[in-house]
Every structure is written in C-alpha cells, then in structure tokens.
Amino acid sequence: MKKSLLILLVILNITSCKLFTQTDEDILTDEEFKSVLLDIHLTNAIMEIEESTVLRDSLKMKMYYESILTKHNTSISKLNKTIKFYSTHPTEYNKIYEQVLEELSEKERNLRERAKDDEQRQTLKELKEN
Fold it and tell me: How far apart are CA 5 and CA 3, in angstroms?
C-alpha cells in the first residue's frame, strides 16, 4: 500500500509539473513576459513624471495598462497566469527580470547620451548666434 501511494504521488508530481510548463498556452513566453514587464516599468516611469495628474486619474492609469496588454496582444488573465507561474519558478523569473533591468539601464544610458548631445548642440547654436 505504501509503495502504491508513493508511486501515485510521484506520478502526480510529474504530471502536475508538466501541466504548468512554460510551453503552456495560458502563459506568456519568456520573451513576451520580458517585453510586458519592460513596458510596465516604462509606463510607471511616465506616470511618475505625470504624477500630479495620472495618480488622481485612475481611468488614465487603466488606459495605460490596457494599452500595454493590447500592444502585446494579451489579456490580464494571461498576464496573471504568467505571474502565478513565475511565482512558483523564482529562478526563471529572476533571469527574466535581470534582462528587463539591463534593457532599462541601456535605455536610460541612451536617453542620457541623447540629452547630452542635444545640450551640446544647443550650446553650439547659441555660440554661433552670438
């Protein structure tokens, strides 16, 4: 009896793992999830910049997040299932999140370089005018 129970538990464990793999259609792929997380962070940054108006306007916030889902052709249900999946797979989540942070850092570096270039162009323009 104990042996049968042990075999049953092993089989259930194996099948339950197969039911919730990343190939499951109900969750986003790693790349899709990374893209959604990246857009969520960028949207949050925009909302912080527009803090005074957006935080008071929940409809606007909802529109921002709905536009992310639309852009990525996904649903809140699929995103929630993906988050639930990764909550039980923290190592995989950390790998994806590290990639998100790297991309955000790269975007920030590019923006800073563009701002610096714009500032230098403006200074040159002012010097030429004088």
Answer: 5
What pTM was computed for the model?
0.69
Distance CA 78, CA 90 (A): 18
Q: Residue-wise over 14-30: b if at least 16 C-beta within 10 A, else e?
A: eeeeeeeeeeeeebbeb
- Is residue 96 within 8 Å of residue 86, measured between CB atoms? yes
- Region of 27 please: left (phi>0), alpha (psi -120 to 50) or beta: beta
Mean pLDDT by 10 residues, the chain (130 residues): 45 50 75 94 81 65 88 94 93 94 91 79 70
Residue 73 Ramachandran class (φ > 0 left, ψ -120 to 50 alpha, else beta): left
Q: Where are the domains of the chain?
A: 27-129
